[in-house]
Design goal:
With 274 residues, the protein is an alpha/beta fold. It has helices at residues 58-65, 88-94, 110-120, 132-145, 161-173, 191-206, 218-224, 242-245, 248-255, and strands spanning 17-26, 32-42, 47-51, 73-78, 81-82, 95-98, 179-183, 210-214, 227-232, 235-240, 259-263, 269-273. It has a domain at 17-106 and 177-273: P-loop containing nucleotide triphosphate hydrolases (Rossmann fold, 3-Layer(aba) Sandwich), CATH 3.40.50.300.
Length: 274
């Protein structure tokens, strides 16, 4: 399995993507805070999953970590340096971000879409004669990671929602980032590809990459993630090992009584809607 070149590069002190006393607000003044005085740290070699009810700021947190939102308070630090002081090209090489929804503006082929990520990583243009072999290897490696090599020659507009999602994940992986931020990456994927994606993210993290994703599926988090962060009312409600946090007290604070907590035959907790 090919891995991003930066995987494993961050095992020395001080390397992390960190939000400190983060406050983000939207709307007309006085603005309404979506996140307030929140602390969060993404470290190398760890697969973090962020969960919570709708509207608590999960996507906002990822976008702030990627440097895509103005901050009303606090700061985001990339390896100890303020993200606001880092150039956009350097940010793009360090942080790979996939939003929850993306509509390609052009009629790209799969190869072209993933090639954009490979170009960020310094592999050149896939259509440039001199750099094409290097770019082609990077594109194929990224598509192989998400089980999408067979889609290489097709256009994004021809793909199903799940197929397009896998290709867009490949385009982010082709950037070879140190920090990988994914918002609902399993959305529109079938059960097989959901499990395969989370298994891939866990493997990437174990190789040294820093991975954070938002999901509504606590069961996937328990099965694959190293750490679970639960958001509620503009801040962190709880943070720790996923199995330790999937307990009635925490689930009730997030979802009320609209769930049942069961246990798999291997002992893992499983949450289902009631």
């Amino acid at each position: 399995m090919a891995l991003p070149r930066n995987a494993g590069a961050g095992h020395h002190g001080g390397v992390s993507l960190r939000a400190t006393t983060l406050t983000v607000a939207f709307g007309p003044k006085p603005q309404t805070p979506v996140l307030q005085d929140l602390d969060f740290e993404l470290e190398p070699g760890r697969f973090d999953v962020i969960v919570g009810a709708n509207g608590v700021g999960k996507s906002t947190l990822l976008r702030a970590l990627a440097g895509l939102l103005p901050l009303q308070g606090g700061k985001v630090l990339l390896d100890g340096k303020s993200l606001a002081k880092i150039s956009l090209p350097d940010r793009a090489r360090a942080i790979g971000f996939l939003p929850q929804e993306i509509q390609p503006a052009f009629a790209y082929t799969v190869e072209q879409a993933v090639g954009l990520g490979a170009r960020v990583a310094g592999h050149g243009h896939w259509f440039d004669t001199e750099s094409k072999p290097k770019a082609t290897r990077a594109i194929d490696a990224a598509l192989n990671l998400v089980d999408a090599l067979d889609l290489r020659g097709r256009r994004l507009s021809e793909l199903s929602g799940g197929e397009r999602r896998r290709v867009l994940i490949a385009s982010v992986l082709a950037q070879e980032p140190q920090y990988l931020l994914l918002d609902e990456p399993a959305a529109m994927l079938d059960l097989h590809h959901q499990a395969e994606l989370f298994r891939l993210l866990a493997r990437l993290a174990s190789s040294g990459l820093s991975v954070a994703c938002v999901t509504h599926d606590w069961n996937l988090a328990v099965g694959f993630a190293d750490r679970l962060t639960v958001l509620k009312e503009r801040n962190v409600l709880a943070c720790g090992a996923p199995a330790d946090l999937m307990v009635p007290n925490i689930l009730q604070q997030v979802y009320g009584d609209s769930f049942s907590l069961l246990h798999h035959e291997d002992g893992r907790p499983v949450v289902v809607p009631r």
